[in-house]
Structures are given as structure tokens and as C-alpha cells.
Amino acid sequence: MKLNFLFPNEFKKIGWIILIPSAIIGLVTLIYNYEPTFLDFNVPAIFIDKFSLSDEKQLFGTVSNNILNEILGILIIISSLLVAFSKENVEDEYISKIRLESLVWAVYFNYGILIFSFLLIYDFSFLWVMIFNMFTVLLFFIIRFNWQISKLKISAYHEE
């Protein structure tokens, strides 16, 4: 019995349509520290650590938060999953092999960067490394997989 957990090929286009603008808007908001006030809401929180003189901590409650980062993060993750794990037009065993090798390579590469970061990056800068690390496994996989597929198409073109 062969199990296939890939999305249909049509989802890849939807993923790209969401991923590219979300990533661009995310980078722009990160660089310029932009948080529009119309996205300020009281949102539920599981653990609240209020930065005050009393060091008050609360297990459940609400906090005032700008939800732009959460929206963009969710859009980037969902669209990256759609791009990364949608079938190709022709999904054969060799494509599956490339997919698996790219995933393994992306995990190794990502954790290599993380080990490097543990050794050389500290304090608040390390928090930024961890935030980016949430997205980089999928992004490294997408880059390597598409690069390998394009190499395959170029070699098939030259054989003809």
C-alpha cells in the first residue's frame, strides 16, 4: 500500500501566490518595524509575563497585541507547506527521491546553521535567529528541490 501525503499540483500555484507577497510584506515590516494600529487587538494568551516591577505572571488571559506578525507568519508557513508539498505535474519515483534528498539536505543545512548560531550569536540577536529558524527549513527545502528539478529539466532538454 502506497501512502501519498502530497497536495494536488494546483495547490503549488496558490502557495506561490500567497508566499511571495507574504514574505515581501514580512521583510518590509521587519526592516521598517511597521505595525499598523488597526491591527491592535486584545488576543488570548496562554502564558502572560508582564514586564513590571512586580514580576507578575499569569497562566491564562488576554494581552493587547498587533496581530500583523501572526498573520504573516501563518500565511508564510501555510503557503510554504503548499509550495513544498504539492505534487509536480509528473510525480514519479525519481521526483520522490529528489524530494526526499532535498528535505534531508534542508534539515541538515538548517541545523548546521543553528549549531553555528548557538556558538557565535547571543542575547537578543539569537532570538531573531530562532524566529527565522521557524521558516528556514521549508524555505531551504523549496530552494533546493526547485533547483534540483530545474537541473533535471535542463539535462532532459539537452538529451533531446
TrEMBL record:
Keyword field contains Membrane: yes
Task: List residues traversing the bilayer.
Answer: 14-34, 67-86, 98-120, 126-147
Name the keywords, alphabetized.
Membrane, Transmembrane, Transmembrane helix
Superkingdom, according to UniProt?
Bacteria
Which protein, by its recorded name, is this?
Uncharacterized protein
What is the scientific name of the source organism?
A: Psychroflexus lacisalsi
